[in-house]
Give the backbone structure.
Amino acid sequence: MIKVVIIGSGSVAQHLIVAFRNAQKQENTVDLIQVFSRKKEKLWHLIDSTKVINEYDELLDADLYIIAVSDNSILEVTENLTFKNRLVVHTSGSFPIDELNDSNRRGVFYPLQTFSKNRGVDFRLVPICLESENATDYQILNRVAKSISNSVFAINSNQRKALHVAAVFVNNFTNYLYQIGNEICEQHQVPFEILKPLITETAQKIMVLSPLEAQTGPAKRCDSVTIESHEAFLKDENHLEIYKILTQAIQDNGKKL
Amino acid sequence: MIKVVIIGSGSVAQHLIVAFRNAQKQENTVDLIQVFSRKKEKLWHLIDSTKVINEYDELLDADLYIIAVSDNSILEVTENLTFKNRLVVHTSGSFPIDELNDSNRRGVFYPLQTFSKNRGVDFRLVPICLESENATDYQILNRVAKSISNSVFAINSNQRKALHVAAVFVNNFTNYLYQIGNEICEQHQVPFEILKPLITETAQKIMVLSPLEAQTGPAKRCDSVTIESHEAFLKDENHLEIYKILTQAIQDNGKKL
């Protein structure tokens, strides 16, 4: 059994706790022996309260420490670790491996998904991106990751940064386009509900077609009559600017083919 | 039985043919008596070939004619109709009802979904937006629409235009953000597959949370360290411009709250 400690109590930490708990019901690869949380009671609904600690000197000896805290707090956590030469990883998409404190063996355990506290996630479908400084540590990370997910990848820090930036486009920015769609509906007293099946199908299409193949719409068709009529319709300056820039980008992209 | 004729042979026409065929197996509301297609053989895999015509003077007497052709061709089709005072509707998101030829009773039958030719759609989930000039015609459209979809709405031309513009944001522009994500992955030799569960979850979240509640990411958090590092990372001018504009828009939006 690989003994694992999680440090942190936010969304990622909580989803990891649930994922390890579910995995332990199926197989005996990983034993989640402890979780560090400044506010211990925050995790009592998820794990046996005797396993939750809030003092660094209570940390037990483990094979793997997973730091699941915000990027700003990662260094602070590593500086509080009093032991040496153990395997310590973080869960961040953008924090480079070589900026971790080097008194321990360093690595990355990055689950690429958007986690909301009150929303369950099937962790077996969440891609986990792993990085380590040596092959032995990679084997440990790989076994732990595979105990909770079917989708495990070796990804170096530069690739991970690319993924993190790409994730901002397909997740945060996409959600903001949903927000604009919602605002346009509200301005014209149309229920946003009507757009939801289209949102679902747009995402599902991409599972079988490349985004280039899936691209449709007035910009792709260079349908200047519709584009001009949409631009005249948009009264919100911010919506109009984004409409123009993305329309132009899709048209330029079409010309590259 | 309401006798329906479809004019057109593209994606929307083909999906409507399949939807009516499936509906006819369940109930006897609608009888699809004819389809007009310039190339008759294009539809033989979908419908009894004797029902496919390619001459306007072969059009039978029907209760409803659905023109499912590109916006540019709608007027040309209506000018070729030799009968008068029958119910004639189009399926376009942006064509105003009062620009249709007024020798027939006018209406709109707009299914709001992205249709690809080789991809099945569960039409019962597709919202259909209806508009007519009088209540009697609306009842006909409503019965026909409800025979194929669970999701039917009365939407006037101005609201329909708002939906069409909003659909460009949540469908065409969102797909283009997927395309940028794909390009970033390719530039850094990372499989785009890794992002697919995130794309799915981003769309699914919006079914239960408003886009405002679902917004996450460095722009929402005003995390300037991450934003600057992403901007430095993006070498493609086009990607960088879109990153900056959407980041700024999300930050401005946050301030409005």
Residues 7 and 190 of chain B are 46 Å apart (CA to CA). The beta strands of chain B are 2-7, 30-36, 52-53, 64-67, 87-90, 105-111, 128-132, 152-154. Chain B has two domains: 2-155, 160-256.
